[in-house]
Fold this sequence. Notes:
Number of strands: 9
Helix content: 40-55%
Distance between the termini: 31 Å
CATH architecture of the largest domain: Up-down Bundle
Radius of gyration: 21 Å
Structural class: alpha+beta
Mean pLDDT: 94
CATH topology of the largest domain: Butyryl-CoA Dehydrogenase, subunit A, domain 3
Amino acid sequence: MSEQVTAAVREVLPALRERAQDAEDRRRVPDESIKALQLAGVFKLLQPARYGGLEADPITFYETVRLIAGACGSTGWVSSVVGIHPWQLGLFPDEAQRDVWGDDPDARISSSYAPMGRAKLVEGGYEFSGRWSFSSGCDHASWVFLGGIVTDGDGKQVDFCTFLLPRKDYVIEDVWDTVGLRGTGSNDIIVDGAFVPEHRALSFAATSRCVCPGQELNTAPLYKLPFASLFSYAITTPIIGMATGAYEAHVEHMSARVRASYKGERSNEDPFAKVRIATAASEIDAAWLQLKNNMTELMGHANRGERIPLPLRLRIRRDQVRGTGRSIEAIDLLFENSGGRALRVGTPIQRFWRDAHAGRVHAINDPERALAMFGNGEFGIPVQDAML
């Protein structure tokens, strides 16, 4: 069934490609695109089967995201971030899952995980307030995941959680006006004193240990994976997809390009251009192959009911940030190789270049932090990080 989703996505790629500029102009993914992806089943890939989901292998999900991002970077980004959330909701207590999917199995969730909220313990739950930025696809969601610090009655920090809130409990402020990923609609979320019941909070400590209440009913190996491993690749995969789209657009562009400065030399006859293309292709392939290898190994442990080894989790984060870096390096090579005409507004190469660089600044793409964690692990230094 999950393979049918990928096939259905391939059929809508031309339409997504045609709407890429429209997404930029609207500063949000067009409703028509979201509907097409919903009908294709993209947002059901990682959703629990108990609520109509497909419980697909993560690689299938990432393959689908890569295809979408290769047509439109912003649409791929939103598809990935929003598409990973059904998996996370599957880790919450079943009462929270019923709250979201009980009446609408197609309900979507956006997010902003930075601990910008403050949650005070009260009877039955939390009093929650804050302001969060960068909630991609929030206009297409009826719920949101928000990060927050939990304090007790004395103001002492006692936990760091993801909180689940319905649309009636928050306000979206339209602030998203950027040079890249313009179509993601990553606006601000504002919460002012909302009550969040206890079952709609999930501790990051629980997700890091891979021991969550939702696993009692969602028993598939998929729900025994570390949050940071899956979510970090949900950020890198669209960037790999953008690099793939830039590569395809570049090869097509170069096949017809004539270089006036070099006496009318055709670019497809330029040996130096071919070297750059080959180098870019290798970087993209390396990023993707490491992702597939790591996810295959990760799922192997989960399928066998084994604890996920710390060295593998560290390697996943290492290869994830390097996957982003490789993709950026590839896009830069292609962009520099494209000539001045690629600068024109509306051309796909410059859009992929801007979108990928915008995605690069996501907090989970911090290469020094991830690579330092890997180095600590290699030297036997204890590693504790919410991004692991």
